Amino acid sequence: MFQADLLRGKKVLITGGGSGLGKSMGRGFLELGAELVICGRRQEVLEETVAEFHTDYLGRAAWHVCDIRDAEAVEAVVGAVWQDGPLDVLVNNAAGNFLAKSETLSPRALDAVVRIVLHGSANMTLACGRRWLEEGRPGTVLSIVTSYAWTGSPYVLPSAMAKAGVLAMTRSLATEWGGRGIRLNAIAPGPFPTEGAWQRLVPDPALEEAWRKKIPLGRFGEHAELANLAAYLIADGSAYVNGEVVTIDGGEWLKGAAQFALMEQLSDEDWAALRKR
Ligand code: COA
Predict the structure, then answer these.
(1) C-alpha dist (Å) from residue 260 to 153, 212, 215
(2) Gap from CA of 231 to ligand 1 centroid (Å)
(3) Is the CB of 202 under 6 A from ligand 1?
(4) pTM of full prediction above 0.85
(5) What topology is assigned to 11-276 in CATH?
(6) Is the beta carbon of 200 within 6 A of some atom in ligand 1?
(7) HEC sequence for 195-262
(8) Within a 13 Å sphere around the CA of 86, how many CA atoms are in the beta-carbon half?
(9) Residue 82: CB within 6 Å of ligand 1?
(10) What is the pLDDT of residues 11-59, one digit of tens each?
(11) Where are the domains of the chain?
């Protein structure tokens, strides 16, 4: 749906880019001419992904091992990325999540998710932002959040709290840094099947089916659809979009909120009887 060189000349760093949605966005950006850097905790996953991209002749891609929870490690990796030429775009994609009844969460369980999602995204954003500001360069940050960043959600409390924080960071810095050429936006994806998320968040096939029914479009998202939206938001053509969160969920969260959505259970006969009454 885009010109083949939409992202030519842009250097993009994706956290958690070795697998799942981060990998799919990376592939999409490479196909549009971007130069890609991915980071994550597992070297073999990063190596494999970059090798796959190179095998497919997708252009320049590099990797760095980085635990984004560690601000010093982030500083070192962002410095190394910059040495090779300044970055244009940061995508905060790395996340951690699991289902749990909130009253069972230990302090370490809360930390496990919040430190990746909230602290990790802030560490990366501040490390890149400082450099852009010092150099007077424009930059773009795109963060992957979720609709429960504003609705809240049971059973994923640490993730909901942390994603709400990432959204607050996006909006705060969009106004603080916007005048200096840095724009920040977010995407709130609904369910896009990935191995990592599915294994943690969709415990059995019956629940998967029930979830599908919650979505007005009647299906889960396709990775290329997310990559398209992300490409638009990091491209120069969206330069006036700043501090925004774009939902891509087939209408899932609205249906969850809509007061009369449950009336879809009524049959045509029920509707006829209702009208008569
Ligand atoms: N329910 C309750 N507590 C849980 C839990 C669960 N399902 N999974 C982990 N915890 C708790 C552990 O019990 C531990 O607390 P404790 O020491 O007080 O018992 C704490 O969380 C840390 O556990 P640990 O196994 O050391 O976690 P970790 O830091 O290695 O990683 C994740 C936990 C969630 C961050 C890990 O699964 C991860 O790295 N995920 C990345 C990818 C991902 O989650 N993708 C999905 C995105 S949707």
Answers:
(1) 20, 18, 15
(2) 31
(3) no
(4) yes
(5) Rossmann fold (3.40.50)
(6) yes
(7) HHHHHHHCCCHHHHHHHHHCCCCCCCCCHHHHHHHHHHHHCHHHCCCCCCEEEECCCHHHHHHCCCHH
(8) 15
(9) no
(10) 999 999 999 999 999 999 999 999 999 999 999 999 999 999 999 988 9
(11) 11-276
CA dihedral in degrees (77, 82, 88, 90; nearest 10)? 10
pLDDT per residue as tens digits for the range 189-225 = 999 999 888 888 888 889 999 999 999 999 999 999 9
Active site residue 240: no
Q: 223: which 2 tokens?
A: 């990775």
